Every structure is written in C-alpha cells, then in structure tokens.
Amino acid sequence: MTLPPDVPYDIAVIGAGVVGCAVFRDFSLSGLRVVLLERGADILSGASKANSALLHTGFDAVPGSLESRLMQEGAARYRRIHQGMGLPLLPTGAVVVAWNAADEAALPGILERGHANGVHDVRPMGADELRAREPHLAPEARGGVWVPGESVIDAWSAPLGYALQGIAAGGRVLRRAGVRGGTRDEAGTWRLDTEVGPVAARLVVNCAGNQGDIVEAIARPSPFEIRPRKGQFVVLDKTAYRLATAIILPVPNERTKGVVISRTAFGNLLVGPTAEEQPDRERAATDTAALESLLAQGRRMIPAIAQETVTTAYAGLRPATQFKDYQIEALPKEGWISIGGIRSTGLTAALGIAAHARRLYEAHFATLPAFEEPEGPVMPNLTEELPRPWQEDHREEIICHCEMVTRREIAAAFDGPLPAGDLGGLKRRSRCMMGRCQGFYCFRRVMEIAAPHLPDLVSPLGGAR
Ligand SMILES: Cc1cc2nc3c(=O)[nH]c(=O)nc-3n(C[C@H](O)[C@H](O)[C@H](O)COP(=O)(O)OP(=O)(O)OC[C@H]3O[C@@H](n4cnc5c(N)ncnc54)[C@H](O)[C@@H]3O)c2cc1C
To answer: Where does the record place the FAD dependent oxidoreductase domain (predicted)?
Structure first.
C-alpha cells in the first residue's frame, strides 16, 4: 500500500538485508502499515548478499547472549516455515575437527558450551567415526565434536521470500530509496529524507547493516561503531561437492569461527571465510594472496581439493561493532528501534530478531495482534536437492548451461511484486551466470531477456555493460 508523503506509515524499516526483510515481514503480518526503504537497486545489497549460508544451531555462541537466544529462535522459526515456502534445508550436520593436541584439549569446552546453549545433541566424535563419515579428510584429523543440527540453506531465496510475504500482507518496498536524514515533528512523526522523496512514519527501525551507526545518528549519537570485517570465500566446482558431506569446522577462537569447508545448496563446495578488519564499508574485494591461503588451508584439511577447479571467489562484509553481542534497543522517546551489529549470524537469527523487534514494539509502543504464519509464496527452487525446471518434460530452452537455468526462470525473475532490480538481483533469483563460466557463454543471451528490465545495464552505445 503506497501512502502519500504526508500520511505516515506505522513503521519505516531502513535497510533491506535479511534482517530488514524479516522485520518488514513480521510487522506487516501484524497488520501495521510498513515501508521497507533500501538504498540499493535491489534488496540484499549489503552483507546479506555474500555469506556462508549456514543455518546455525548456536552451539558455539556466548551462552546467555542475545545473539545465542535470537539465533535459536530464528533457526526454529525457519525450520517451521521453510517447507511451506519451498525453501531448502540441507541437514548436513557439522563436525568441529581437532587437528592437533591443542585443538583436542579445546573439545570438552566446545561440548560444554554447546550444552550451556541448550544444544544438547552435540557429542564427541572419535577419529574412526570421523574418518568413516568424512573419508576425504586428511589423516591428521584426530576426531572432534559432532553437531547434528547445523545446516545449509539458500541465503538469497529466504529473505526474498520474507519480503514477498510482507508485501502480500500490505507492506511496501522502495528500492533506490537511500535514507539521507530525517526529523521528527512535535506530534512524533518521522519525516525521512530519502532518494525517492520524503517518507513519513510514526516509528523507524534501523536495520542498515554496515551503515548502521550512520543511520543511527539520525536519532541520536550512535552508541555503537560499525567496524566492517571482511570474509573472502573460494567456491569450488561441483565435482568437489562429494569431498565433504558435513560442514567441516575448525576449533574457533575468540575473534572468528575460522575457515570452514561446506557444501552449498547449489551443489558446490565452499572454502572460507577470512576475517579481515577494514575501514571501507562498501567494497568487499577479493585478493589473490588471501584466496591462495584459503585454498592452502582447504587442501590441508581435504587434500583432494588440490585436484579441484575454482568456480569463483567472493567476499562479504560483516557489520561488526566494538561489541561482541547484537546491539538491539528500543528508544520510546525517539520513536525508534535500533538493530545494529548483526555481525556473522544474521541469516540464522533474522526471524528471531524480527520476533524480538515485535516484542520491543509491544513493550514500548503498542500491543499487536498475533498472526498466523502465512502459506507461501512458494519460492522457485534453485538448489540441487529438489527437481529443477530444466528436468521437466517440455521445458523451455536452457540459457545458462553451467547452472542449467531455463529461459522461463530468467524471465520469471522480473515478474511479481519484487522483480530483480539489478544484475546481482537477477543472479540471486535465478543463479544464471553463477556457474563455471561466470557468464562467459550465456551473458549475451541472458541480456536479451534482462536488458529491457534493467535499463542501467545498457550503455549509450547500445551494448550491454
Ligand atoms: C563472510 C560472512 C559469512 C557469514 N556467514 C553466515 C552464516 O553462515 N550464517 C549466518 O547466519 N550468518 C552469516 N553471516 C552474517 C550475515 O550475512 C549478516 O549477519 C547479515 O547479512 C546482516 O544482515 P543485515 O540485514 O543486518 O545487514 P545488511 O545485509 O548489510 O543489510 C543492510 C541494508 O541496509 C541498506 N542500507 C544501508 N544504509 C541505508 C540507508 N541510509 N538507507 C536505506 N538503506 C540503507 C544496505 O544497502 C543493505 O542492503 C555472514 C556474514 C559474512 C560477511
């Protein structure tokens, strides 16, 4: 529902990452008039476009932290709704592998922390059981801790589905709508200055990720400072998928969970991420030295990785702060809810964070009716786990042969209430150009379908950029 600029929405959510999409969903389903403001050309323009796509159990979180609670609540909600939305859940499990005596000494503490977090099914795994389960691991693997609940999901279809559910409930998504500032009038209405004009709202929810402290300054001096932490990844070809069934985790340290080897929902094997502080909030560049180091670490854990081909590399920026825990707070006097510092677990926690935001709203602003989880929409399946359109009889022609994406799937990315807003959005909705050739063969044919919908892509000379 679009409201004129002088009629306030009940809530304006700033930032359409996975957290903003989940918050938008829940408040819209609660019957409020909600607008989701995103500065990018599409949703998921920030941290949420590039992560490891793991649905965590929270076994290694700080017990009693907000992050621990909301990860568990978020994962539980995802598990309840994913089937109805056609969203994947690969129940891979994970094993924290000990590679040396120091790692072995850390295992009892990892078990204890898992239990303290209420994850009671974590258990020790001996070297023989580990070898039987993961025969490609290097012989130095001494056993570890088995975490059966860790899983792999599709990090893009889930938040898109949340946003579509919010729209179906009456919410509105505005893209290219960066918020530049705002003032609050005497009646308590926010007048946000956005790139698409003024937007009025009674309450603002700041979900701006790596811009979180800058957006927070609209309401007050930000109590948290964003310190972006880059994570680089190497994506191995689909032939490498067989080399690990479970997620292979190292023994973590205080700063990072360390380099992980994991299957992806799309049939690849992932090695990463790094953890690198950087001042730049926008650009997440990959560099050869870091990628080579990741590959070397991957080969030490699974030597057969040496024979595998790299499909691509990417990097994401975690919205970290000076604090370890999430920075979530309601400011009743300011008509504002801050959701900051959702560092490295936001995909898992998003629906838990949204439920928490609802609770804060009820505690400080007004009561809300309970809502039924909606049925659908059913998201297009992009994974290898379920049948894909190219496998159907009488399918349309395949345009992207690496990822087996049909013409219909590419065209469908531009249908509906939240069509792809840029090339990245098209890739995240269809997987076209994300395979081995990275668009080398299919780019022109993809552009024939996409260019009419993406005017930014067409250069003044008439060619696709
Ligand atoms: C390397 C890496 C690996 C990770 N692995 C996992 C994992 O396996 N599992 C897991 O659960 N989590 C993981 N995460 C964490 C997860 O990706 C983040 O916690 C999550 O993406 C944060 O989401 P967000 O919505 O808070 O931020 P973002 O996704 O950054 O969203 C913020 C949005 O706000 C927009 N915005 C900013 N300023 C403005 C403005 N002024 N006006 C309007 N819009 C604005 C941005 O464009 C952006 O789209 C990982 C993260 C990284 C980087």
So the answer is: 10-357
